[in-house]
Structure formats: structure tokens, C-alpha cells
Amino acid sequence: MIVNPLRQSSLGELLLDQLRALIVRGELAAGTHLVEGWIAERFDVSRGPVRDALRQLEIEGLVETRRRGVHVRGLSDTDLVELYSLRGALESLAIRETIARGDDADWTPLEEAVARMRKAAESASAADFAAADLDFHTGFYVIGGNRWLTAAWELHRPLFAAVLDITNTDRDLRPIAEDHAELAAVVRSGDVEAALSTLTTHLDGSCARIRTVLAERRSAS
């Protein structure tokens, strides 16, 4: 496992991102005892950011506190299915509210995200593609304008970012960019049932790809 010392200003967020990624990729295996001092030393940070990161990871369900400290819970196949079920419920409501905006809807967030995805796909930039992908889906919440729904999505977005990071490497991203463009077009058509059906197919495909990649990683470990 390769870790890099963190020396930037937002140490807590950077540490959280790295720990989350290591857990999602399985490089910190389920059951691993996460000792504050060990983490602080390995990442060259104080214990304050470590405690903050572990608290957030527990909220996200990736670690759990036991009698003898904090241990990695990991991300199981069942977890992924449940996460995507939750995401589908949130995003379906966001799309309903987006369509309900009617002529008042500003489609710029979707248009800009699709343009960025196409550009990233052409340059095979997996990191840029993942960021644009998540911004695209966030666009439905932004257009819909329900701040509580947006807050619920933002709580889970970092975990989905970590998951996407391991599935977009070494694959042609152009078809996925066009899938997003198609979803945007269906939503803009105003057909609620068609939009929700397209979203379900879209998220089911994403979930299936991620489950396959993580299963392969577990088998190889």
C-alpha cells in the first residue's frame, strides 16, 4: 500500500479522501484496526485530522467503532446494491422536481457536464471524467432546487466518487458520455416515466460495472 504524506492546507479532507479510497479499493481490508497514531505517522498529520476523518468514515458506514477501537467495515456487494437503491430513490425525486420546473429550468449544469465528459473521454482522463459525471448528476438536484434533497445527495457523493475512481480506468469512456447525453435529452423532453426508466437503466448499468470490478479485486486479493 502506497501512501503519500499530506502537507496541504486541507489536511482533514485530503486524509479522508485517501482513507476512503483505500477502503473502497480493498487496500485497507475489512477488519483492519485503524490506530490513530499509525495513521497519523503514515500520512504525516496530527491526530486531530485523523479523528475527524474516522468520524466521517463511520457516518458513511465504511468503518465501525468496537470495544477495542475503530475497524474497517469495508464496502460489500450488498452495500453497493443498497447504496445504488438509495441513489436511485434520491435521483428519481430530483428528476421529477427538475421536470416540474418546466420552462423555468436552466439546463446549463447538464450541458456543461456532458461537454466536459466528452472532452475527458477523448483525452482518456478518468479523473476528469468521474468529476464531470458526478457534476452531471448533481445538476438534477441543482435544477430541481430542493436544498434538502441536494444535501442528502452531497452526503453520499464522496463515496460514489471513490467508487467511480476505480471503474473508469482503462476503458472507452465515450459511450458512457453519450449515455449521459441521452439521459439529459429524455429528462428535457418532460416525459417523467421515460426519464425515470432511463435513469434506472443508467444506474443499474453503473452498479453492475462497479460490482464486477470490486468482485474481481476481492478474488485477486
Account of the 3D structure:
With 221 residues, the protein is mainly α. It folds into two domains: 62 residues, Winged helix-like DNA-binding domain superfamily/Winged helix DNA-binding domain (Arc Repressor Mutant, subunit A), CATH 1.10.10; 144 residues, Up-down Bundle (Four Helix Bundle (Hemerythrin (Met), subunit A)), CATH 1.20.120. Helix content is 71%, strand content 5%. The chain has nine helices and three strands. Strands 1-3-2 form a three-stranded antiparallel sheet. The radius of gyration is 19 Å and the shape is globular. The model has no long low-confidence stretch (mean pLDDT 91).
What layout of secondary structure does this protein have?
Elements: H1 11-24, E1 33-34, H2 36-43, H3 47-59, E2 63-66, E3 69-72, H4 77-100, H5 108-122, H6 126-144, H7 147-165, H8 174-189, H9 192-220
Antiparallel strand pairs: 1-3, 2-3
Helix pairs in contact: 1-3, 1-7, 2-3, 4-6, 4-7, 4-9, 5-6, 5-8, 6-7, 8-9
Q: What's this model, at a glance?
A:
This protein is mostly helical.
Any key phrases for this structure?
single chain, 221 residues, mainly alpha, Arc Repressor Mutant, subunit A, Four Helix Bundle (Hemerythrin (Met), subunit A), three-stranded antiparallel β-sheet, 9 helices, Tscrpt_reg_HTH_GntR
CATH topology of the largest domain: Four Helix Bundle (Hemerythrin (Met), subunit A)
- What share of residues is helical? over 70%
The CATH superfamily of the largest domain appears as GntR ligand-binding domain-like
Task: Count structural domains.
Answer: 2
Question: Total number of β-strand segments?
Answer: 3
Q: Proportion of β residues?
A: under 5%
Mean pLDDT comes to 91
Question: What is the level 1 CATH name of the largest domain?
Answer: Mainly Alpha
Name given to the CATH architecture of the largest domain: Up-down Bundle
Uncertain stretches of 5 or more adjacent residues: none
